[in-house]
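Notebook entry, structure prediction.
Reason for the run: the old model in the group folder had no record of what sequence produced it. Starting over properly, with the input documented here first.
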Amino acid sequence: MLEQPDQWVEPEAGFQYLADTISVAPTHQTEKLAACGIDAGIFGEQVDPAFFIGIAIHAGIRSGISAEGNINMLQGLQMHRPPLLDEPLNVRGEILEVRVVPRGRRVHTDVWFEDEQGRRVISAVRTSLKPDLNAADKGGAGERPQPVIADPAELQLLNEYTLTPERVKAYSMEGNSIHYEQEAAEQAGFRAPLIGGGMGVHYLTAEMWRRYQPRAFSADIYFRRPIFWDESVAVGVPKGSESHWTAMAVLKQGQAVKVGTEVALRDLLPG
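New structure, fully documented this time:
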């Protein structure tokens, strides 16, 4: 069960997260990836780095920053070297900026994970929207970066997945209730619960490990559209990029294919 503080604090620039030490157990990775429809064997003895998106959010929760109703917008994820299952990692973090936007507050955080020698293993920089429930019908959450994928119809599809409420609940029952409660999702302005950002990124990292078994990479992850718990998705990469991927996307399948989550990849070192 996720540890929560007795009292929440409002996010403000300069707020320091409580120091902590975490590890990812093999059983946890296997269960959560199975909920996504992914075979954990792809990662061997390594941790899927997508887990650190959620772990970084939970570090904020443990420090008193509520994640309830928050929406991922942009996630920077850098793997300095592959983290290992059951490896103790020290967690540090801080809030870099809080800015008022029409729909609420835009919060920019930096969380990093170090090994026992003090060397960085994972860096996770995140921009999220903390919505004002009284402004759910308003547009505007700050500047919108340019698309990574110009035309999703031109992507080569690698794998497809069918989401269900049962699978999304199995992955997301800790933390933000917009991922598993209909009423909470509607209060936040959505038609149904949506998958957490980290859950969607698992589909991308799974393909990276199938292809490259990377030793290191940097990724700018853009959460363009909500992916609902009853949708089908596919992973795509630009055609002709077989030797070196620089972009990937989780596509919402339907009458019109749309980008749900997209990634700009840099400094990818194959294993």
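Summary: The chain has five helices and ten strands.
The old model has been moved to the deprecated folder.
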